[in-house]
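User: I'm putting together a teaching handout on how multi-component assemblies are represented. Below are the sequence lines for each component of a complex, exactly as they appear in our records. Could you produce the 3D structure of the whole assembly as structure tokens, so the students can see both representations side by side? Please keep the chain order the same as the input.
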Amino acid sequence: MKPVSLPVESFNPGLKEFVRNEEIAAANKALQDALKNRQQATNELALAEDQLRELEQRASAPPLATGQPAPNALLAAQRKMSGLRSAADVAQAAYAAASARLHALQRRIAADDAVYRKIGSSDELSKVAHVAENQANWLTAEHAKATAERQLILAEQALADLPENTADDKKQTATQAAQKNIDTARQSVQKAREHADSLRTKLNSIDTTYTPLSPKYPETSTGRRTALARWIVAPENPLTARVAVNHIWLRHFGRPLVESVDNFGNQGKQPTHPELLDWLAVEFMSSGWSMKHLHRLIVTSGAYKRASYASDSTELGNQRLASKSDRDNVLLWKYPTRRMEAEVVRDSILFAAGQLDQRPGGREIELTDWVKNTRRSMYFTQHGEAQMPFLNTFDGANVCDCYRRSSTVLPSQALALSNSELIVHASRLGTEVLARTAMSEFSRSTNLGGATSDDSFVQLAFERLLGRLPTAEELADSLQFLKEQEQALAGHEVDDRAATSAPAATSSTSDKTTAVKPTAEDVRPPSSDVAMRAKENFLMALFNHSDFVTIR
Amino acid sequence: MSRLMKQLQWNAMTMHEIRASRRGFLSGLGMGFGALAAGSLLSEPSPSSRAHAHESSMAASLRPRAKNVIWIFLSGGVSHLETFDPKPLLNKFAGKTYDETQLPNPQKLPIYLERSRSVVGFDREVISKIMPLQVGFRKCGASGIEVSDWLPHLRTVVDDLCIVRSMYTTDNDHNAEFQFHTGRHSLDEQQPTIGSWISYGLGSLNENLPRFVFLGQYKDTRVKRNFDANYLGPAHSGIELSLDPKNPLPFGRRIGGMTASEQLGQFQLVERFNRYALQRNPEDEALAARMRSYELAYRMQMSAPEVLDLSSESAETHALYGIDQTTTELYGRRLLAARRLAERGVRFTLVYLSDYGEWDSHSNIKELHARSCGRVDRPLAGLITDLKRRGMLEDTLVVCATEFGRTPALELTSLNKAGTGRDHHPHGFTIWMAGGGVKAGYVHGSTDELGFHAAESPHYVTDIHATALKLLGVNSRDLVIPGRQRLELDYGEPIDDIIA
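Assistant: Of course. Below is the structure of the complete assembly, with chains in the same order as your input.
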């Protein structure tokens, strides 16, 4: 274990760009605010001066002339003037101090660069920073002095403003309190003056000391963490690479090489392919821990490219034979099919409907916002108190255990893909887009063999949702479905309209033509065109095709 | 009549599954949506179908006594010493170590190490002092069985209970909960749960509802392991139903103006698509399970909301289960729902009647156990009473279990110096059953004088599985899947002594 010398930014964070930018931005803002305050104070003072001048002119007029101001008015205006004048003094001092502080900050940064990065003469720039800092300190003290003096003026005014006609005892208490305030203010003024004076004496000092932007931390670390990190990735310690490889394999194949992904110890399970695990681990290490290399090795492997389904009867026979000796496909004689993870189900539905917002990053999504917000599901908030029913139904993330997901097949999943706002909405929106594309493709095509626009729609839908074209029998069934639904809808149009306004059917009393009232106000209504509505229903059915949720 | 015929066909097929090949099972899907279109299947099971279920249950290789199981689980480890297995000697020896009792030290007996296998690698609480009983007992009922003062309502039905006081398990930590349902220690290869075996072996009495239902709530998803089907395939895992009266079945209602006939058409199309896929890949279990799940989903959409709507039950029934009181409302609703499911032919309902680990009273056992007893006592007694008066207790087996008991000695650790609780105790604990052909008002087996080891007629957890299966008419040894190894221990032995 050796101490490690750290990069200069690590022990001197004041050299980091973002730290400097934040400091400068703050000083700039303070300067802008001070400028604004000074402007305001000056304007108010000028206005008050005009008013006072007018009053004085009127007061100097002959005593019996009209417009003679009350004697009190002149006095009040004069008092107001002195208050405003002190406020303007404070604002001016504040501006001077803020300006000096920004200037000093810039000089300190330049000095930091010279001292720690050898940019410019460190001696000279340190001296400049020293002077600028003393200037800023003095002006800050002057600002404090002006503030204290204004407090004193206000306190004296308060005493003078005490009403005349109050009872003696009350007046006495008030006078005493006001006097006490004046005394305190006077003391403060005294202190502030002394402080400012002492700082003024330093203005002529020339020295290389200044305050760096940040405190300095030790230039070396103990090296304990480095030692641990080296030990973790040492070539003599293949455990790390094995564990990592196992996790990555799990995510490509849906099952790991070592069943106990979180336990490679005594009580862990044996690997199914020990040589493969070791080979991948060595490849991973020797490629400089390149995950990209590992992913490439896995996804270009024969095992990964193997089909999951038999494509003809010979293959089917072979698969049956294979399954006799290795029913669980431990040896990976075919690609193991699996269901999409919960988040992928939702994202894929949104994507298929052209709705998925794929922009990375941003705030987490509230669970209640799961239909309206079309950002990727990984951004949902996760906590123990509430779970999102849709993701939950498809075995969503478990906040207590992140290594493996269970993958169930449940009736509630079928219902979630039939009755959720998400699926109804996505089917209807997706249909609109697909139908438009289908129509334009159809009109552009030369229309060989009597194909209809429904053919194009079905084919496009299969491609969009399942990533493949329909088989002949699937196409025939789909067209049949569209025809039947369209006819049935045309026949029941009147009934439906009546039924939709009826109260929600709650249980087994619902019969085949009763529509259940939409529960969510946001659900897009079905198309009023029966042919389109049939297509919407078709798309929703296709979302329920086993191939949609299956990765194979 | 046509329904009964289908019932018979179905059960015949189920029985066939057990002995025939796996492939036969996979292609043996339900009748599909063609039959649904005929509109004949969406009805309630008729009384006659229920009455004939015994004859139709052709999977049965033995004479069945029960048709349904309501399997109640109390998670965390219920103290046998403070519920159904009183040991007055604990009061006498209170404050002494086991060595000081002059009795054979139970921790030095060979079975102490033979039976338990610790995951964490050390034994818990080797030296401690005996803790006196934290509650009084009283003999009650005609049977004179002793029941704790914390269970006043269960006392009233004690003459219907069959108490097994000699259970043991082999894991001294909470994985014993899953072990209670799979029969396997957490370090071993996992197995299907008992509910899945029953779903697999006995088939359905009502195709509108799942065969294996889970009723409960949990934050820790490990609870799902209690209803996992493992290699029996996803079709036999337990299906969670919700008791939220506003939303009895998640996504169970059509929305957005969709009509039932439109949706039926969709389901039929999906079934055809998936059938083509299954032809291409007949071995795809998940696909077969998915097809079945669509059938069931469609049927459940019609029937589940009605079953789980408890408002049709009388106020008197609600009160019987304690639904009228806040402390017992939640669990009362679960048990009442379980009765309604059993009534409609659900084979196996796992009722999770606690939070995960709720009974795990390492400290403050007196207060915590009293509180937990108060939550379940009235609902459990209500269930037994209700089943009995409806004539359902005869063919409904109720099992009330926990993963292990609690130590006769108090728990002393560096964190817990006060010693106000009892630790995990796999060596001896109590479960009880009722109905379904077990003896009523009966106690089977016993622990030693200190309540430590299961002494007389000791039973590992799979003996309870074998007993339940035997009462349902199935020999546990018939439940085998070609190519899957089951161990002797997995089958268990039925406890013939408790069968009436």
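A couple of points students might notice: Strands of chain A lie at 4-5, 220-221, 338-339, 550-551. Residues 494-520 of chain A have pLDDT under 50 and may be disordered.
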